[in-house]
UniProtKB/TrEMBL annotation:
Top-level division of the source organism's lineage: Eukaryota
Biased composition (Polar residues): 95-109
GO MF, any single term: nucleic acid binding
Residue ranges that the Swiss-Prot or TrEMBL entry lists as coiled coil: none
Biased composition (Basic and acidic residues): 70-85
Alphabetical keyword list: Metal-binding, Zinc, Zinc-finger
PROSITE patterns in UniProt: ZF_CCHC (PS50158)
InterPro entries the record matches: Znf_CCHC (IPR001878)
Organism for this UniProt entry: Solanum pinnatisectum
Region (Disordered): 70-112
Protein name, per record: CCHC-type domain-containing protein
């Protein structure tokens, strides 16, 4: 039985036992004893809140049940696809590439055809002095501040902000504007 059906039945039958439902906390506790194992733990946690009443708990339990059922269904579909032997992602043939020029150990966006060496200190690929483990700034390399307080980055930010305040860039592409003309209502 779903939480929605159970909530309806619980509300309907609680009219016949007003002595059991006199205290709101008892009513919530009795509701939680009958919910499915799927949402029981969340309902027990939810009933601990001071602002929780029976109607809020019912809505909360329904939403938890719906999300868990959706998750189970998606996992079930995913496992079916995996069992059928179909790959989940389309694999590209090794000789196919999206660009016409081959890539030679080039890092994303580096612009350099030479690969970055692996750092002995941190194990990552980087050029120059490794700042891992030091209290230095990763932007400029100085030791007296961190990236969040870097004066060079702040100065660059001020320059771009000032450029935008100075006015529009004459070299920037123009944006098309569409104006609506109002028709003569007199005609």
């Amino acid at each position: 039985m779903s939480i929605k059906e159970y909530s309806f039945k619980f509300t309907l039958l609680s009219k016949y036992a007003p002595s059991l439902m006199s205290n709101p906390r008892d009513e919530i506790s009795r509701f939680v004893t009958g919910v499915s194992d799927l949402v029981e733990e969340e309902c027990r946690t939810g009933m601990l809140h001071d602002h929780m009443n029976i109607s809020r708990l019912m809505v909360y339990a329904q939403s938890i049940e719906e999300s868990k059922l959706k998750r189970k269904n998606s996992e079930l579909k995913r496992s079916r696809l995996d069992e059928q032997g179909q790959p989940r992602f389309k694999k590209r043939a090794p000789n196919q590439d999206s660009s016409s020029t081959p890539k030679v150990n080039q890092e994303k966006g580096s612009g350099s055809p030479f690969p970055k060496p692996i750092c002995a200190n941190c194990g990552k690929k980087n050029f120059g002095k490794c700042l891992a483990g030091s209290s230095g700034c990763y932007a400029c390399g100085k030791n007296n501040h961190q990236v969040i307080n870097c004066p060079t980055l702040t100065a660059k930010g001020r320059e771009t902000k000032q450029a935008s305040l100075d006015g529009p860039n004459p070299n920037a592409p123009r944006k098309n504007r569409f104006y609506v003309l109002e028709a003569n209502k007199d005609k």
